[in-house]
Design a protein that fits this description.
Structural class: mainly alpha
Oligomer: single chain
Order of helices and strands: HHHHHHH
Largest sheet: none
Number of strands: 0
Distance between the termini: 39 Å
């Protein structure tokens, strides 16, 4: 016999605190995305004959990405963050939250290593193709992690509120 009452969820209220956490995440995402675009533009610039300028621009772009991801990590670790809220309120998703945080820490280490490598280069030994490859790996890893985090957040909030997060924020704001 099927219990229909067990299937009926009473969605929780979507609070101003939830909206604030989502807005903060959106700000973090926008800042990091802009730093990724800036890094991609610096990497795509011509390097031959202008190694010092290319290296300086790439180095600066990686510094900005490092700062953006550091701020994002600090915000995500706050008790009022979306990830903290999910870990606190949805026990079945705690391991996934922990996994996202661990992957993010590993990615931050890769960014720091890339930053150190680029800073150690001089215009005579800059291997632009090699650095582009390694930076591209970091960029792809960040995009994949971002998708995994978004999936987790949307799944958690759909489970908790029985509706898409985007419905709460309005079109184009999720």
């Amino acid at each position: 016999m099927h219990d229909h009452l067990a299937d009926q969820r009473s969605p929780l209220a979507f609070t101003d605190a939830h909206r604030g956490a989502l807005a903060e995440r959106r700000t973090d995402l926008d800042r990091t995305l802009q730093s990724l675009h800036d890094l991609e533009a610096a990497l795509a610039a011509a390097a031959p004959g202008r190694g010092a300028v290319w290296q300086r621009n790439v180095s600066h772009a990686i510094e900005v990405l490092d700062a953006a991801t550091a701020e994002e990590a600090r915000n995500a670790d706050q008790p009022a963050s979306l990830l903290s809220d999910i870990a606190r309120t949805q026990p079945r998703l705690r391991n996934r939250v922990r996994g996202v945080r661990m992957q993010y820490a590993q990615l931050r280490q890769r960014i720091a290593a890339l930053r150190a490598e680029v800073a150690a280069c001089n215009d005579l030994d800059v291997d632009a193709a090699d650095l582009r490859q390694r930076a591209g790996d970091v960029i792809r890893a960040l995009h994949l992690l971002r998708g995994r985090e978004s999936d987790l957040i949307y799944e958690a909030y759909y489970d908790a509120f029985d509706r898409d997060v985007g419905e709460e924020l309005g079109p184009g704001r999720a």
